[in-house]
Write a structure and sequence with these properties.
This protein is 55% helix and 11% strand. It has a five-stranded mixed sheet. Strands 6-7-8 form a three-stranded antiparallel sheet, with no helix packed on it. The protein is an alpha/beta fold.
C-alpha cells in the first residue's frame, strides 16, 4: 500500500521537467483545425466501414455462387409428379385458373424443383411446384426448373417444407401426406421436418395427423377434396362413423346418393364434406331392419337388426325355457363361431 506522502512525491516527479512558462505560451487549436481533425478521423472510420461492408458483401456473394443452381427449361410432359401427393385437387381449386392466367401473362417467376428420374434419361420427378408444372402443361410451354439429385427422403422433405410454406395445405392434406410418409416407414422426426413443424409438440401433432387420416378411406378423402375450412374435430367426427377405414354397404350407398345429386356438382370442397358427413350421420340413424323368423308349429321370433346390434324377441309363453337354454349355451356357441371363423 502506497502512503499519501509517497504518492505526492511520485506525482511531482512526473511533471518535474515540464516548463510551465512554455506550456502557458502554447495556444489551443483553432475551431477550423479541430474540424479538420474531426473530418479526417470520420473519413478514416467511414473508409474502414466501407471496406468491411465490401468484404461482407463479397463473402455473401461468394457463398451464393458456391450454392447456386442453374435454372433450366424442361419439357413439362417429361416430368412426373412426386411419389407422394400433397395437393388433393389442383385443378379443382377455385384459384388455379387465375394462377394459370397469371403465368400466361407474366410468365413463370419461380422455378420448380425436380430430380432426374432413375432409368429414364431426360425425364424428371417433381419435388415441389406441381401447380406451376400443371399450368405449364396446360399452356404448352417449357417449365423453368432446378435439377437436383435427391434421395426419396430428401425429396419428401423438400416437397413438404416448400409446400407447407407456400401453399397453406389444409388439415386433411397435411394428414394424408403425413400418413403416406408413415406408410413408407419414415420416422415421425422426418415427417415433422417435411411438414415444417417447429419444436415442442410437433411429434404429437404428427401422430394426430396420421391417426385422423387412417380413420377415413383415401378415396373418400379425395372425393371430398382439401376442405380448407374443415379442421381436425370434424374430420375425426367423420372418421368415427367408419369402422376399419371401410364403408359399409349402407354407407357406400348413402355416399353414392350424395355424389350423384345435383347439389354435389355445384358444391365446393367444404360443402361436399358437410354433405358426406350428414349422409353418414343419417345412415347410422336409418330405421332398423325388423323381420320375423317363423319356426316350427308357427312360433315366431322377432329379429331387429341395426348397424350396431341384433336383437331377438322370443315368445316365452309359446316356447318356455328357450331363453334360459340359449343364455346357458351362448358361451359355447360363441366359441364354436370363433373356431369356424378362424379355420
Amino acid at each position: 500500500m502506497v502512503n499519501p506522502k509517497e504518492r505526492n512525491q511520485r506525482m511531482r516527479s512526473l511533471f518535474a521537467n515540464v516548463d510551465a512558462q512554455a506550456l502557458e505560451k502554447q495556444t489551443p487549436p483553432s475551431p477550423q483545425e479541430l474540424e479538420r481533425r474531426r473530418v479526417g478521423s470520420s473519413a478514416v472510420k467511414s473508409m474502414d466501414r466501407a471496406f468491411v461492408s465490401i468484404e461482407d458483401e463479397n463473402r455473401r456473394l461468394h457463398d451464393q455462387l458456391l450454392s447456386a443452381e442453374s435454372v433450366v427449361e424442361l419439357d413439362p410432359e417429361r416430368i412426373v409428379p412426386s411419389f407422394i401427393s400433397d395437393r388433393l385437387d389442383i385443378e379443382g381449386d377455385e384459384s388455379f385458373q387465375a394462377f394459370v392466367e397469371g403465368i400466361r401473362e407474366a410468365g413463370q417467376k419461380l422455378p420448380i424443383l425436380v430430380r432426374p428420374l432413375a432409368g429414364k434419361p431426360g425425364h424428371y420427378q417433381v419435388a415441389y411446384g406441381h401447380r406451376r408444372l400443371r399450368a405449364c402443361q396446360i399452356l404448352k410451354r417449357p417449365v423453368k426448373a432446378i435439377v437436383r439429385d435427391m434421395s426419396d427422403e430428401e425429396l419428401a422433405v423438400s416437397q413438404g417444407i416448400e409446400n407447407s410454406a407456400r401453399l397453406n395445405l389444409s388439415f386433411i392434406e397435411q394428414a394424408l401426406f403425413a400418413l403416406k410418409l408413415k406408410e413408407r416407414k419414415y420416422s415421425r422426426e422426418t415427417i415433422s421436418e417435411a411438414l415444417g413443424r417447429k419444436d415442442g409438440q410437433r411429434l404429437a401433432y404428427i401422430s394426430i395427423l396420421t391417426n385422423t387420416a387412417s380413420l377415413i378411406p383415401e378415396d373418400l378423402i379425395r372425393l371430398i377434396g382439401p376442405a380448407p375450412s374443415i379442421g381436425r374435430p370434424k374430420w375425426e367426427k367423420l372418421g368415427a362413423f367408419i369402422k376399419e377405414r371401410t364403408l359399409t354397404d349402407r354407407q357406400a350407398r348413402a355416399v353414392a346418393d350424395v355424389t350423384e345429386s345435383p347439389e354435389w356438382s355445384v358444391s365446393g370442397s367444404d360443402r361436399r364434406f358437410s354433405l358426406v358427413l350428414n349422409a353418414l350421420d343419417q345412415s347410422v340413424r336409418l330405421p332398423a331392419d325388423v323381420k320375423d323368423l317363423t319356426l316350427a308349429e308357427g312360433v315366431v321370433i322377432g329379429v331387429k337388426r341395426t348397424d350396431g346390434a341384433t336383437r331377438l324377441s322370443i315368445p316365452d309363453k309359446r316356447l318356455p325355457g328357450l331363453s334360459d337354454w340359449l343364455l346357458q349355451r351362448l358361451p359355447e356357441l360363441v366359441e364354436e363361431f370363433q373356431r369356424q371363423r378362424n379355420s
